[in-house]
Structure to design on (346 residues):
């Protein structure tokens, strides 16, 4: 078989963040390592993320306008790129629009909703507790379904640090480093809110704060870091694996970075920022993998402070969260996804 050509179309924007683009970058990295050729059909918001994080050899094909117009553009790009597959990571396409992109080729989709008909030949949902049965009613009869954290799209640098990070956490010891990372787009300035709420509680600890260059919180956090030697600001960092490996606990967004932290067994308070994050996070909390604080709760700041204080003060709880989260995800999901897409079962 000749090398497969894959056109990727992720959603991105101020409200939805850059997580769809980041997990597609992880998947394309695994696909390219297996000989595939990949390109992104990219809106201006997606282009901004790719400019910062994508390898220079990935083609970026511009997409403009409203979604209906964008679908036409993506279909045209798929034709001119001679795509064998279109890979979608997008919540807002219906089955007819997906069918238009599937015309003359195959369609793969990354999802975490399982809530509507899809035209996909292959679908992947790495949500905790997700099963094939959740998707079977929504898909063509012969579609391939990949579900659960075994397929979580985690970058290889996390798996490379896994053994050492888990050994470090088993040793225990004093808590020294806290990581706060709530998404590149920093929806509604949530990062500053969290840092301000927790700063008195974290006095004396090293606090690594990660934001994107367009984050609403960036300027006030820059000012705070100038007067606080223990507050270290990381903008558009390329070393999340290093920061997570060094951290003793994390306050993190409830999206795809969940599985990066789990791969490294990082005890986490997951801040729930969107409705689609809540079911998985609650299931993980019920099974003792994470703690949670919901930004939609009127008492969010008080709840967050209370749960972080509990985590700081309870080494046994930190060990439990580390062990259970690490057991759920080994960080090799992108490889499994790439193998399934490029070598489909007969």
């Amino acid at each position: 078989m000749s090398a497969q050509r894959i056109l990727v179309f992720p959603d991105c924007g101020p409200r939805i963040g850059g997580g769809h683009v980041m997990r597609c970058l992880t998947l394309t990295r695994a696909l390219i390592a297996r000989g595939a050729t990949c390109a992104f059909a990219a809106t201006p918001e997606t282009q901004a993320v790719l400019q910062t994080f994508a390898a220079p050899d990935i083609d970026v094909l511009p997409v403009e306008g409203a979604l209906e117009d964008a679908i036409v553009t993506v279909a045209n790009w798929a034709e001119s790129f001679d795509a064998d597959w279109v890979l979608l990571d997008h919540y807002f396409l219906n089955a007819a629009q997906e069918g238009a992109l599937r015309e003359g080729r195959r369609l793969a989709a990354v999802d975490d909703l399982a809530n509507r008909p899809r035209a996909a030949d292959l679908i992947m949902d790495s949500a905790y507790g997700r099963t094939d049965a959740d998707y079977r009613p929504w898909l063509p009869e012969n579609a391939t379904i990949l579900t659960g954290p075994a397929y979580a799209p985690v970058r290889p640098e996390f798996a490379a640090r896994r053994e050492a990070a888990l050994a470090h956490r088993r040793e225990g010891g004093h808590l020294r480093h806290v990581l706060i990372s709530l998404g590149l787009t920093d929806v509604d300035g949530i990062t500053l809110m969290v840092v301000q709420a927790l700063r008195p509680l974290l006095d004396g600890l090293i606090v690594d704060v990660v934001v994107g260059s367009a984050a609403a919180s960036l300027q006030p956090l820059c000012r705070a870091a100038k007067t606080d030697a223990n507050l270290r600001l990381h903008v558009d960092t390329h070393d999340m694996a290093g920061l997570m490996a060094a951290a003793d606990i994390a306050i993190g967004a409830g999206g795809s970075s969940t599985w990066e932290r789990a791969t490294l067994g990082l005890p986490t308070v997951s801040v729930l920022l969107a409705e689609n994050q809540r079911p998985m996070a609650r299931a993980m909390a019920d099974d003792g993998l994470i703690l949670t604080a919901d930004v939609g709760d009127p008492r969010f700041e008080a709840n967050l402070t209370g749960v972080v204080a509990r985590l700081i003060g309870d080494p046994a709880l930190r060990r439990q969260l580390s062990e259970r989260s690490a057991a759920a995800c080994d960080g090799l999901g992108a490889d499994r996804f790439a193998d399934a897409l490029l070598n489909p079962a007969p």
In short: The radius of gyration is 20 Å. The CA atoms of residues 219 and 250 lie 22 Å apart. The chain has a mean pLDDT of 95. The longest helix spans residues 156-171.
